[in-house]
TrEMBL record:
Gene Ontology cellular component annotations, sorted alphabetically: cell outer membrane
Organism: Caulobacter sp. 602-2
Family in the record: Belongs to the TonB-dependent receptor family.
Keywords, sorted A to Z: Cell outer membrane, Membrane, Receptor, Signal, TonB box, Transmembrane, Transmembrane beta strand, Transport
Membrane topology: Multi-pass membrane protein
InterPro entries recorded: Beta-barrel_TonB, Beta-barrel_TonB_sf, Plug_dom, Plug_dom_sf, TonB-dep_rcpt-like
Name the record gives this protein: TonB-dependent receptor
């Protein structure tokens, strides 16, 4: 890539740096010592400036050094390691076969409730969303200027408005910058891939005799793909049936079954194989595939006989049962990535100027341009995208014609599945341009200590999604229906039977490029005033109040090939997309009071209340209210309690209201007798083999599985193509958060223990009328009475209404994942943090020079409940993996998760070791079906080494080894080679080295 030479130069220049910065830890917001008289500041979650920097909500602060110590070149991966976050959509998003609107992006998902419920701020102000659902892409954060990151758990809508239902992540930037700083970092995995390089240069200075301050920062980041094929724990030939769509091509007969006699006449009489079996009517119920030499083989639900092509990762034989009487030729793909690539440029500029002693002005500009490329398997012409071949096609092998003629309707066209390897992999290029321009004024009112501030902001995110390697349905149809096999369209025509390579001209004729464009705009105006109101015996009552206006607009323009005039899509694997647009306007007012209630009493050194209210008027859902009542109580000097109640809301985003219908492949697993995976109508499934098999069979018939194949039906794939889209009738979701905690400081004066601090916080977040897509996996399971959701096996049950089937083959056709106000989510847990540092000179080990710092961040989740629809059963998924509130929110919900760090510092050098631990989890299928044998994950322990050394000339070196012991990730679910790159380290051992120089 274009930065490779620069990367290698960086690696050579930094190779001598053998020590690096200290431990990555998240420290509690309260300082370890009683603060001095300092400038009042605003802590995240409140609009009132306080000199004591006390937070009433559970809050953690992560410094820039802690982020650096993770060795990541993007902040998303560093945050996801914290116990408060669930691994979300990010650099593990390596490729997609859908036309979604989030490719290449990185999100933060607090408490597993999703990125759209996690409000992202920059210096307390909203950022431009990069996704129509309102999620903010962390790739746009100016990382070179991060001072710290404040993370608040629970609702904060009173302070900031919509979206802060799970909490707030506030990126605070350095407030002043003088001089010039250059920073570079290079990283690589032990496998020689996953190279990363980041370079930033930041300059700042005062001007106009100190009345003005300016800073300009440029940041370039490049991250290469990491390949699954380079890791031995990735398996491309699974032992269970999966996709049966292979390059050789296979025929599904549906209800138009050939005679068993015609099959065995060829296989026994000509090929010399054993006899195949069929149904009681003497019909063959399996599939027929095509060898490259134009002979035939049997597959899917029958023994694989006469398969003559070499077995490869793309086509290999697996057993569906121990006896080997049911086999399948599986499709696999070994070109997938485990880390997406990224090529990003970012610019940040800010000017502050004191117009007068009482009037200040600022102007701020951010711009990010980045490209990420996703690579996925070739087009699979199967399921709803299966091909239709007429019996007149001239390339139909001679051996196959008598079989076609034996069908009840011999001249009918047949369904043909094929992996179109001939067109190469599908490549999705995601290109983003995001900018935000903000101007503001602030000053003193002249009345008491009241101050005011206001700003206006305009921002835009432009997203181009280019897809190559797609296949044109109309072009392929013309080739298949041509009496010449397509020679009039391209040289040699196209013979689809067998793994044959067509002419370059024919491949080009079938291949297509598409381009979808998405634009989001946001306009904001906000004015605030704050100060002191009056004095009470316990102190001064302070307030903050303000009003704001926000407009969000959305426009989507699909490629014309996905938006045909006849209402269809011409690209196999991609559904119809329509032009879409919409906007939401919001007007808000808020007020907040800080009331000192008691002071200087026994066991009540301070007791303060923080009360807030906000009214918001949305053009979409109308007026909504949010409010809060928090407290902080200093019992004695070392002990402070905090907590309260917050009502938060999240109005539907402009994308959730108006996004176009699009399709995406959704994994449902492979049917088996011991799990709830796969299509319940598949004869291998636990539904068809269980106690209610007869009722299940009847429901499958009612849904459209043909009678002729009901007792032999197998889906032959582990995924379906589901439809999702916006819903203009959505209403707001509400969240109630209760929290209670304590901040503890050491009561001891001894130097060994004086720097010991701890915090413990309990939280309970309950989201009602949650907006989300009803998972197709759940729709399948609940339609067929998992958890008692359809006890009469009624085909008109709501969950069943989301499923439609092809009447000839029984295959699910574009099941719907509707966007609805669902039931509710609830998560409850406890966060514990301990920080302790001391000098060895003050301990029994006084012969050791230097100091030691220990940090423990521990998260315990007591509940993670999901109710899909009002009145539906509530399931608790805590301690499981596999089910999330939405696809990008993360599906791992361990009871325990921790990060423990220890750092030894001696003079200018430090060396740290970080331990990352995630408790073992069961498969979420067991929550609904306790008898399920679906595989969970084992406990995970990974260790990272990091170090830092300060050199002369204002130079610092850092280096690290992540996953020091090369710990492999645990397999997720029953599919071999399936891992969770958002929560576990899938790269293996990796190294990084960096250098910073100040001028």
């Amino acid at each position: 890539m274009r930065s490779r030479t620069l990367k290698r130069m960086m690696a050579g220049g930094c190779a001598y740096g053998a020590l690096m910065l200290g431990v990555a830890h998240a420290q509690e917001a309260a300082a370890p010592e009683e603060p001095q008289a300092v400038e009042a500041v605003v802590v995240t979650g409140s609009r009132i400036a306080r000199q004591d920097y006390v937070a009433n909500s559970p809050i953690q602060t992560v410094g820039a050094a802690a982020i650096e110590a993770t060795g990541q070149v993007t902040v998303e991966k560093a945050l996801s390691q914290m116990p408060q976050f669930t691994g979300s959509f990010g650099q593990g998003n390596t490729g997609s076969t859908s036309t979604g609107l989030n490719g290449g992006q990185s999100y933060a998902s607090l408490r597993g409730l999703g990125a759209k419920r996690t409000l992202i701020l920059l210096d307390g102000r909203r950022l431009q969303p990069s996704n129509p659902d309102g999620s903010v892409d962390l790739n746009i954060i100016p990382e070179a200027l991060i001072e710290n990151v404040e993370v608040i758990t629970g609702g904060a809508s009173t302070a900031y408005g919509s979206d802060a239902t799970a909490g707030v992540v506030n990126f605070k930037l350095k407030r002043s910058f003088n001089g010039l700083t250059a920073d570079a970092q290079y990283g690589i995995s032990e496998k020689g891939d996953a190279e990363s390089f980041r370079f930033s240069i930041t300059g700042g200075s005062d001007f106009a005799e100190g009345r003005g301050r300016a800073v300009l920062s440029f940041d370039y980041t490049n991250r290469d793909r990491a390949l699954q094929s380079a890791r031995d724990y990735y398996i491309f030939r699974t032992s269970a049936p999966g996709l049966s769509t292979i390059p050789q091509g296979t025929v599904l007969f549906g209800a138009n079954l050939p005679t068993l006699a015609s099959i065995n006449s060829l296989f026994q009489g000509t090929y010399g194989t054993a006899a195949l079996t069929g149904n009681s009517a003497g019909r063959y119920t399996g599939q027929i595939g095509f060898n490259t030499d134009q002979t035939l083989f049997s597959t899917s639900g029958v023994p694989v006989l006469n398969f003559r092509d070499p077995q490869t990762d793309n086509a290999y034989i697996v057993n569906a049962n121990a006896a080997g009487t049911s086999q399948q030729v599986n499709f696999g793909y070994n070109g997938s990535s485990m880390q997406s690539d990224l090529d990003r440029y970012a610019v940040f500029a800010k000017v502050d100027y004191d117009l007068t002693d009482n009037l200040k002005f600022f102007s701020q500009f951010t711009f990010t341009d980045y490209v990420s490329v996703g690579v996925s398997n070739p087009t699979l012409a199967s399921n709803v995208y299966g091909l239709t071949v007429p019996v007149t096609n001239p390339f139909i092998p001679t051996d196959f014609r008598p079989i076609l003629a034996s069908r009840p309707t011999p001249n009918a066209a047949f369904t043909f599945y094929k992996a179109l390897d001939i067109l190469g992999p599908r490549i999705q290029k995601y290109s983003y341009d995001v900018f935000q321009f903000t101007n503001g004024l602030s000053g003193e009112t002249g009345f008491k200590d009241w101050t005011w501030d206001g700003y206006v902001s305009f921002s835009r995110a432009k997203f181009d999604n280019e897809q190559t390697g797609g296949a044109s349905a109309s072009a392929i149809s013309r080739l298949l229906n041509s009496p010449t096999g397509g020679t009039e369209y391209c040289a040699g025509g196209w013979n689809p039977f067998g793994n044959l390579t067509p002419s370059v001209e024919c491949a080009r004729y079938m291949s297509r490029r598409t381009l979808n464009q998405n634009t989001l705009e946001q306009r904001m105006v906000e004015v605030n005033v704050s100060g002191s109101l009056f004095d009470l015996p316990a102190g001064t009552v302070k307030f903050a109040a303000g009003t704001d206006y926000r407009s969000n607009e959305y426009t989507f323009k699909p490629d014309s090939q996905l938006n045909q005039p006849d209402g269809t899509s011409d690209i196999l694997g991609y559904s119809v997309l329509r032009d879409a647009s919409g906007s939401v306007d919001t007007y808000e007012v808020y007020g907040e009071l800080l009331v000192p209630v008691l002071k200087d009493l026994p066991f009540i050194q301070e007791f303060n209340l923080d009360l807030g209210y906000r009214y918001s008027d949305y053009s979409s859902v109308g007026g909504v209210q949010t409010y809060k009542a928090d407290f902080d109580w200093k019992i004695v000097e070392p002990v402070r309690l905090r907590g309260g109640y917050n009502r938060a809301i999240r109005a539907p985003s402009v994308g959730e209201l108006y996004a176009p219908v699009s399709t995406g492949s959704v994994a449902i697993g492979t049917a088996s007798s011991t799990t709830t995976n796969g299509d319940p109508c598949d004869v291998r499934s636990s539904y068809r083999t269980g106690a209610n098999a007869a009722a299940v069979r009847s429901l499958c018939l009612a849904q459209g599985v043909p009678t002729a194949i009901i007792d032999s039906y197998q889906l032959g794939t582990a995924q379906v193509f589901a439809l999702t889209g916006g819903n203009p009738d959505l209403q707001e979701e509400t969240a109630d958060t209760y929290s209670f905690g304590a901040v503890l400081r050491s009561p001891f004066d001894t130097p060994l223990l004086s720097r010991l601090t701890a915090s413990i916080d309990w939280y309970d977040i309950k989201v009602k009328d949650a907006i989300g897509s009803l998972s197709i996996v759940n729709a399948f399971q609940f339609c067929f009475n998992s958890g008692g959701s359809n006890p009469t096996y009624d085909p008109n049950n709501y969950y069943c209404s989301l499923l439609t089937r092809n009447s000839a083959s029984g295959v699910p056709t574009n099941p719907v994942q509707p966007l609805l106000n669902l039931g509710q989510f609830q998560t409850t847990g406890v966060d514990v943090q301990v920080d302790w540092s001391f000098d060895f000179a003050d301990s029994a080990l006084d012969m050791i020079p230097g100091s030691f710092a220990l940090n423990v961040a521990l998260g315990y989740t007591d509940k993670f409940k999901i109710q899909n629809l009002p009145g539906a059963p509530v399931y608790d998924y805590v301690g499981t993996i596999g089910t999330g509130v939405e696809s990008t929110a993360g599906t791992a919900h361990p009871k325990w998760k921790s990060v423990t760090s220890g750092t030894y510092t001696w003079g200018p050098a430090s060396l740290g070791l970080r331990w990352r631990w995630i408790e073992a989890m069961e498969n979420s299928a067991k929550v609904v079906t306790p008898t399920s044998t679906s595989r969970g994950v084992k406990a995970y322990n990974a260790f990272d080494l990091n170090g830092r050394v300060e050199l002369p000339w204002d130079t610092a070196l850092r280096f690290g080894v992540n996953n020091l012991f090369d710990k492999a990730p645990p397999q997720v679910g029953d599919t071999e080679g399936n891992y969770d790159p958002q929560n576990y380290d899938v790269l293996g051992r990796s190294y990084y080295v960096g250098i910073r120089k100040r001028f």
